[in-house]
Structures are given as structure tokens and as C-alpha cells.
Write a structure and sequence with these properties.
The complex is a heterodimer.
Chain A lengths: L3 E2 L4 E5 L4 E7 L6 E7 L6 E7 L4 E4 L2 E6 L4 E6 L8 E8 L7 E2 L3 E6 L1
Chain B lengths: L4 E3 L2 E4 L5 E6 L6 E7 L5 E8 L2 E4 L8 E4 L6 E5 L8 E8 L4 H4 L5 E2 L3 E5 L1
Parallel strand pairs in B: 2-11
Antiparallel strand pairs in B: 1-3, 3-8, 4-5, 4-9, 5-6, 7-8, 9-10, 9-11
Chain lengths: 112, 119
Amino acid sequence: DQQVKQNSPSLSVQEGRISILNCDYTNSMFDYFLWYKKYPAEGPTFLISISSIKDKNEDGRFTVFLNKSAKHLSLHIVPSQPGDSAVYFCAAIKDSWGKLQFGAGTQVVVTP
Amino acid sequence: EAGVTQFPSHSVIEKGQTVTLRCDPISGHDNLYWYRRVMGKEIKFLLHFVKESKQDESGMPNNRFLAERTGGTYSTLKVQPAELEDSGVYFCASSQEGLALLRGTGELFFGEGSRLTVL
């Protein structure tokens, strides 16, 4: 069963605007959430993370929001840049060993 | 410093054949993971090594898959015999220590993946 879901397979946004990527999860035992970014023919690279004890984490243009009651998190990219065009994976973990549960990814295309 | 390297980058085999994928983690990383992404779906966990020991192999699909990490350095993932549904991209990842993920000081470093096509 898929415990982490990204229901939007793709997102197109204009350069300079905000990109909002959504992720839902079903397992309340998850205590850490991560976003990974993947370019074609490359492996995923870590982008930003958030602990379940927080509701927001910001790193430059990237902000992750966590709503535990709704089992929902989102990634905001402001402003979006052409180099942000990639597949973004939401991931969750419930222990320290690295068995990440990933979503199916959202393809972001930033247009000029 | 070299990252996680995987070989081959792409393998095309026929159903019933055998394929061995190799992963060289970042030097000094005790934790090594195998993940797989099938047909644009989610990236799924296969197994986790700590040094040469299998910490968690709960994601291995069936006994046609065999992973090894002799000596706690590089790892191999063998599929024998390969089936059509084994097609996908196999990612290897490594980390210095599992707890680093929760500390936020580190994360999993992924290789570029090995694309397997079974015809």
C-alpha cells in the first residue's frame, strides 16, 4: 500500500511565480519528512526536510509546511526559476535507518 | 570526493536472463540502500545494508533478487531469472549513519541509477 501520495503528476508554473507541490500521507507514525529533487538521468538529491514536531521549515526559496492533523505537507518554491524544472519527490520516514517511503513524484516545468 | 556510482547505467536483457547491478557507495558510508522506481511510479525501498550486514530486506520483491555487500564496501544486486515486471530504474544510496537523517545534518546520497529493461 502506498503510504505517501503525490496526487499531481505534473505542474506548470511561470518563472517568478510560486510553485506549490502537495503531498499526503497515511501513516501517523512518520516523524520526519523530506523533499527530493530529480533531474533526468540523475539520482534524487536532497532538497529540504521537516521534523514532525515543526510545522514549517524554510531554506532560501524553498519552504516546507507540515499539517499533521491533515497528514499533509507542501513544498513552496518562491520565486520559481527555470532550473527548478525537475521531478520532486515527497518522502517520509518513521525510524532513523533510512527506509524512506516515497511518493510518485511531481514533474515541475517552469516556463519563461 | 566521488559520489555514489552505479554500473551499468542501462542494461537490456531478455526475460529469463540474469543481470547484476553494482553500486559503489561514498567512501566511509556504512549504510547502503537499494531502491527501485518502476514505470514512473514511486521510488520503493528494497533493502538496507549496514556495513556487510542486511539491516532490512523487507522490500525485496521475491527470491529472484539477491543482494550482497561483501566486505562492507560495494554492493551487488542480482536478478535471476529476470521477469518483465523487473524493468525499472534501480537506485543505490548511501549515508554515513542512519541517525544523520533525523539530525538534518545529512541525507541519503543517491547514485544516478541503473535502468533495467527486460524484454
